[in-house]
Amino acid sequence: MAAYLVRRSLGAVPVLLALSVFVFILMHLAPGDPVQLLLPESATDEDIAAARAAWGLDRPLTIQYLDYISGVLRGDLGRSMVFGEPVLGLILQRLPATAELAFLGIALAVLVAIPLGVASASRHDTIVDHLGTTAALLGISVPHFWLGIMLILVFGGMLRMLPVSGRIDFGVPVTSVTGFYLLDGLLTRNLPAFWSALKHAVLPAVTLGTSAVGLLTRITRSSVLEVAGEDYVLVARSKGLSGRAVVWKHAVRNALIPVITVLGLQVGALLNGSIIVETVFAWPGIGSFLVQAVGMRDYKLVQGIVFFYASAYVLIHLVIDILYAAVDPRLRT
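Request: output the structure for the sequence above.
Response:
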């Protein structure tokens, strides 16, 4: 098992290195000079040269990249050119907002997709099955940005039921314990903060989780249909068990193995999708911060955020591989 973990961990290193090189080169090829964007128009040539030297932009790209990757290996993602603060600290400040939104999206997907997929499979080729597959197809096909805008227009503009931006109402005090506003509201027994945070999270969480709902519904339906013809399911039916007991106690338990795999991968996908959703809803997370950093040509900040996303995605894949190896020892070889 230890050798398997080492092999899988070492396999992630080239992926992260290749991605760091790609992002580094792409940022330097992007149009626009970050020095001229950050300095005032009255800056002289000497000021520009001094800023380039201070940020290390006057050195060859190879040296700049080696300095960057050596810092990453030490746990240092550099300092933001705009904010003048460590990039890692800026990311960690906004991580709870992104993690909270991703968790809500996954929770929505699990609560909706698994019952819907099981219902579609247990009522195969009926109106319930057709409605479930249609809903799943729509969930996968509808783009995040369009769905978010439509929800804003309907629930924020026409019905005025829910807020459409931010994490909490202005002026509502919240004591930060974990950084997760919903959890902090419960821990500190601050119900106004909890309900305000919940209302703000509904629309972005629904927007983010819709695609996961569609995918998980299709996977659950296909997996349950596949195991429905297995011998142990037929034996359970022959014992006279009710249809509900056969489906949930025998078929669903074995059908959830591929569902759990896809669910783990969807965590990484939701982190990527949060970039668009956070921008649409002005959610103060890492995704909207990345868009802001790109607009400001903050090389260090963009590189750090992208590397953080990539590391999280690779880590999720590694955890899934470890769980597979724990369940099925054959995979270790």
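The chain has a mean pLDDT of 82.
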